Amino acid sequence: MQLKKYTDYGLRILMYLGAKEGAKESSNNRTEAPERLTTIKDICETFSLSSNHVNKVVHHLGRLQLIETRRGKNGGFFLAKAPNEIRLDYVIRQLEGDEPWIECHNPYCVALPACELNGIVARGKELFYDYLREFTLADLLKKRGQLQQIFSTAS
Amino acid sequence: MQLKKYTDYGLRILMYLGAKEGAKESSNNRTEAPERLTTIKDICETFSLSSNHVNKVVHHLGRLQLIETRRGKNGGFFLAKAPNEIRLDYVIRQLEGDEPWIECHNPYCVALPACELNGIVARGKELFYDYLREFTLADLLKKRGQLQQIFSTAS
DNA sequence: TCAAAGATACATGAATAATGCATATTATAA
DNA sequence: TTATAATATGCATTATTCATGTATCTTTGA
């Protein structure tokens, strides 16, 4: 019972971008590309991660349109939304996958027709995500100055 | 992000016992042993599980004093408490293990000193368990008659 | 004393997450 | 136009953890 590192890495990437780019507000739900884009290499060096895995997470964040990715020379990625528009429940649900937390089929459990358990666990899961829904990336950037310093001195 | 089968099996065992033994009330926090005890074999046949794994879960439930186990001929196990005294949050926390849902060390994350995320996830986890705390084994036995029929015809 | 039950330790297998490698694709700059 | 730096993508491999199997010990009742 633990979030995947994959999900964790996704959140760290967003924190990195948020700390670097700042809390831009955007009316058109888009932010401008910064001068120099953040690259997968930057992330890997900062957090001491392997590029392969980060590669996939970045791609996923791109597909979710949370970041915008640019191929080619001087490419990289940046936040596609303002931090206060990136809800944590959405990020975690998408990266983590949204399977039930208890498995009643596979293999099938005979008690299923009279089982109250799966409903209770499913409701608990929703309460977890309802709570996360109250937070956005902006809430993860409360100590933005400190994060900036950490990220700039790391690697 | 899913409960272990181990935990699931534990809950099914308790449901089986509760359905069979009924909703006995006990002032001294103990129930009487029934005529014929439930065995690991009974559970395995009912739910089509391997005895090895169930063996360990039964042992664990015994250590938690949720059931009482009896070795030797005519041995087996039975509920050690009334169903309404067996809280679901306790069972799941114990069987599942109570680790944090997000890993900040191992390996260490540089952002940790300024990270807001782990606290948010930890609080969400507690809300999940707070919800489970409202339920007991008795709540899983609402359709007790149907469960009894299922369990008696299965195997 | 035998047989039926759980207790325990250790070994193996399976599933999935994490990582690695290779190569394709794209965009920019020289 | 070509070299280079970046992401995109698919497949292979490794590591971790969960699940299961095998063997043997211990306990208890008949």
From TrEMBL, chains A, B:
GO molecular function: DNA binding; DNA-binding transcription factor activity
Domain of life: Bacteria
Family annotation (Gene3D superfamilies): Winged helix-like DNA-binding domain superfamily/Winged helix DNA-binding domain (1.10.10.10)
Keyword tRNA processing annotated: no
One protein family per Pfam: Rrf2
GO cellular component term of the entry, any: cytosol
Entry keyword set: DNA-binding
Keyword flag DNA-binding: yes
Full protein name: Transcriptional regulator
Organism of origin: Pseudidiomarina atlantica
